[in-house]
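Allow me, if you will, to draw on your knowledge of protein folds for a short while. The matter concerns a single protein, recorded as an amino acid sequence and a row of backbone structure tokens. Kindly check, if you would, that the fold set down in the tokens agrees with what the sequence suggests. You will find the record immediately after this paragraph.
***
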Amino acid sequence: MPSIADLHLHSTISDGRLTPTALVDLAYANGVRIMSLTDHDIVDGLPEAFEAAARYADFTLVPGIEMSTDVEGGEVHILGHFIDWEDAAFRRQLTALQESRLGRARMGLAAREGIRLAACSSVVETAPVDVVEQPDFLNQVLALETTLEPRALLDACLAVERELGRDRAAGPRRGPRTIDVDVLLFDGSALDEPGLTIPHARLAQRPFFLALLREIGAPAGWIPVAEAG
């Protein structure tokens, strides 16, 4: 009897709605016997998926990944199956890809009318805070000179997210994401509107962001006092 295979699935490690374990269980319950976990640009969900798959003797998990790259006029997504996901050189390339996504976000913002990139902080890797069952984050702060109002600047940030493949409606809130572009401060002003709070609502609870803001020369009076998370 032929086996049912599903070779393109995303978990909450990238932009899916189910954990790797829940994906394996759902696939098996629906008759799938060959499955590939192909999260976007990351393989951190594979250990959990293999542990879950080991409970089913007649189930095969294929290690995979979906990688994205820019091409003229758009973006191409490439599926890889039977990857050597534990290879050190491969993991270094994935880290470099994550860093390049920060660069693409910088260029995406700087290319928009009314925005000029004035300064970039260093890149800092931090552990997740709210939803801890996800990979570490790479963080960077930018200083922008802009003629845009705060809401229009946020809209530009969200447009860059979409261009880099993020769907804010997918996956758990504050869970894994391909990119996160937010407005932290704006000209020392305070603003509280639906979907837009300045300074950023959790900025005072993220000491690494406060340090990066100081690194790029944000005025001390604009930076909130650190609070316990």
Remarks:
- The beta strands are 4-9, 32-37, 60-71, 74-81, 115-120, 124-126, 137-139, 142-146, 191-193, 196-198.
- The first strand starts at residue 4 and ends at 9.
- The chain has two domains: 1-86, 88-229.
- The chain has a mean pLDDT of 88.
